[in-house]
């Protein structure tokens, strides 16, 4: 059993630890080394994976496990056979042992029984010696002996008969025969068997021959009475026995013989010599001498064995044979049948006390050995388990293979699905782009259609169509965004940007809408927010635009207020703001408490408890911004507030009908805020307003320069008069951005005091229109007082809402006001307005060393420009450059086309012409154009054609700028000679372009102004007195230029200049020019 | 990141191109003109330039192949090439064109032929540079980066 377990252990363990199995199987394989190494390296799981990859990855390795399986099964088949053999041999061994022990037991018992019988014979001998030989006359006669023998037969169960022969010497024969009354007979010489054969006595009853001595039987048991008087020494074998017995003094055995008469199959005669008074160490000769008679007994071995076997219960289980093997070649069977038992045979040696005679007992099992069921079941069981394990292995392996296949299939499908997904996204992107492009066309056309003469119904239709189109485009954009966010493809940029500028842009975007609705739109950025932040401004813009868009949609009155703070700032100022909050708002309407909108933000919870986090956040480069959009709109119904950020959810079905939109914007905003590691929340009170607040995490950029701060207003002081502090704060913020120190004043009555008392000179006073209207009566007095007091009175600027209701109001006091600044305030717009008001130079755009792109942009914006060049590359570049500045560019590739296009009337504001062109070069073309224009102008002048036909333009002169790659001066001169207005060298440079375009702008404007005035004077529209009694205004303008080119001079003159002096000044030239034009002036004035 | 690596390669390559004066400031100006509305402006102009120049070079060759060289026609061609090379900022081509132009003026056929050879060579060189730049730009865009704006 131990063995079985040892073997069965292995397959059991296989389940537990694949490594062992693997090692085991490794012995079978050629790759055992590899396997062992692998098993060391890899854990079970890794091994499995490895197995998967290594052995099921390819077909070649796929067969490997089949071999393994086969070896496994074959090995276990052999193993089970061995188990069977082993167990079977064990059983056989045990059987053999059982047999041996049984056999030995029987032999021992037989021996014992035999010895007991022998002892009795001895006892009988002693009896005879005592009562027959020791007594004179003998106390024993035949009758006594036989009776005694008969009676004591129970003690010798094996001895069927006893007889006593006495030793008679020849000398005593006569006397003995006489005494006995019979003659000593001899046994038949031919007789082979001992004298005990009963049939022999009748035949051979003749007298014994003369011998030295005789051993006639004198007593015998009744059964053997007939042997009396026979001389035992005459029997050949008996004689030997008697002699041997006499010699040894012990009992000896004859060879077994058959007892025919009593039908006994086997017997033994034992002859025991009777010796009288002998010491134990007597020599054989002494023993022979001392012998007086011989006692013989017949042993019935068969009976003995039978009886013995009867005594042992298991008699029937074995067959016992007893042999006399004195002559080993011819063993004499003493007991047992001749039938040979099957299988094993055990031989036990029997010792009956006669060393000459050898006996053996052969034992065999009667039955065939039973089938070794245990061995069979065990081996079969092992085999079955091994097969099961093999099957499990096979199943596992095929399962793995199947899974592997499935996996591969899945991967394939996954790839396909991904490809499909990509295709879908691409399709979506393409389609949306494709939709947007024609939609832009549609929208543009609708816009143009609206500009045409339409009746009210048509206009309504067009407007509706346009609104729908816009909604569709924005929907497409939003859906794209949503899809991008959902698929995680939306990536945020990290670029430095100016948040304030972005907010200004957003404000200008909503300017129109706010104006329509009469809403006040304001932005405030805390000064703690760095100038330049790093983040995705596009997405921030998107969120804010979305929030403001929503606010504008749902707000009918009041304001929308966008504030940006640092989170820590908000947290610290939380307490201060609370008390005044409800009334102190931008437009005076109450708003929802915006602090509640960020109540639930994680970041607030983080930062609220102590001041430590602030310290850490200030040192790091991360900026936590909190941006709020506050409105005074209708608010969100309480029941809808929970699903505000769910995509495509709107407050109600009516909302989308009234306000449009998809309801996706807030959801996108939420996602975007999430991407920027921020949170979004809101608070809304129906009919009061909503405030949306979100936080974003941006990083600080290193640069801090601000273009506005270095502006010309730096260091100026401004007084902001507004009775609403919240609104004043916004104004102050914008002024500060321009570097202006702003002082707030709530009470208009204090303004004068402020202005006069302080040591500071106030450069400007900004008055909120509402405040102005309120204290309408005060202002004139204040201003007049100011005028009296000071020479340098501050400029008064009015901050007006774009709403029309206020506009007509208080026009009576308007004369005191330099400029009205229309809100919403934006830095750029404020700068321009202030510049205008303060009168500081507006003509030097490149002041800060920045390229004048903005100004160029405004100059060229929407101007129709014709570009003529035969070189398509140049054409393309020029067109691109001009388009960049917002111009509408038309291209022509030769001079002739240009001429036909520039034939009055035409729409072009300027023409850029290449000089070198085949067929007709730029000079020629310009000449012709100029001629054409001159003709037209003449015709108009002379009334030959109506002005109307030529678009009400009296004087046609399209500015033509030459484009040339030539740097040769001659060309330049030539350009001007041909009637061109200037030239730009190819390729374009923004600055040069600007210079050329604006070159004579100032002079032109002055001259135009003068011309207008002169005309008015001429026609008596204004009195000459007002204009200083000058009838004809013409201020001499002298160009100053470093240019030495003559052509410039001509150009100067053409623009209305009176001359030019070259830099550096030369006294003589200066004198000449000045005198020249002063003459002219005098002439003109006359 | 891949785009960063490509951008670095791009900048390295471009700076070599600029240092060796294959391209000049004008090219960067063109890049600045490129924006959302015309995302492939430089590529388009560049391709246009390459195609156009190829034609012009062929034209120049055919003119010079003739027995009696029409120098005026030749000069017009050269100027055209000069103009477009100036537009794209192909400085070396432009410089050779100027020499070519002078040769035309002088009526020296030998000088013209020499110049033609030079122009053709310079054209091939700048073509290769431009193509490499465009390829890099494309790769950068494909890798999700943005083409770095070059500056002198």
TrEMBL record, chain A:
Gene3D superfamilies: 1.10.287.130, 3.40.50.2300, 6.10.250.1190, CHASE domain, Histidine kinase-like ATPase, C-terminal domain
Catalysed transformations (reactions): ATP + protein L-histidine = ADP + protein N-phospho-L-histidine
TM annotation in the entry: 69-87, 371-393
Enzyme class: transferase
Organism: Musa balbisiana (Banana)
Every CHASE domain range: 136-362
The protein, known as: histidine kinase
Source superkingdom: Eukaryota
A Pfam family per the record: HATPase_c
Domain (Histidine kinase) ranges: 430-700
Automatic annotation (TrEMBL), chain B:
GO molecular function terms attached to this record: histidine phosphotransfer kinase activity; protein histidine kinase binding
Gene Ontology CC terms: cytosol; nucleus
Compartment list: Cytoplasm, Cytosol; Nucleus
Superkingdom, taxonomy of origin: Eukaryota
GO process terms (BP): cytokinin-activated signaling pathway; phosphorelay signal transduction system; positive regulation of cytokinin-activated signaling pathway
InterPro entries per record: AHP1-5/YPD1, HPT_dom_sf, Sig_transdc_His_kin_Hpt_dom
Domain HPt: 38-143
Record key words, sorted: Cytokinin signaling pathway, Cytoplasm, Nucleus, Two-component regulatory system
Free-text function comment from the UniProt entry: Functions as a two-component phosphorelay mediators between cytokinin sensor histidine kinases and response regulators (B-type ARRs). Plays an important role in propagating cytokinin signal transduction through the multistep His-to-Asp phosphorelay. Functions as a positive regulator of the cytokinin signaling pathway. May play a regulatory role in salt and drought tolerance during plant development.
Domain notes: Histidine-containing phosphotransfer domain (HPt) contains an active histidine that mediates the phosphotransfer.
Protein name: Histidine-containing phosphotransfer protein
Organism this protein belongs to: Musa balbisiana (Banana)
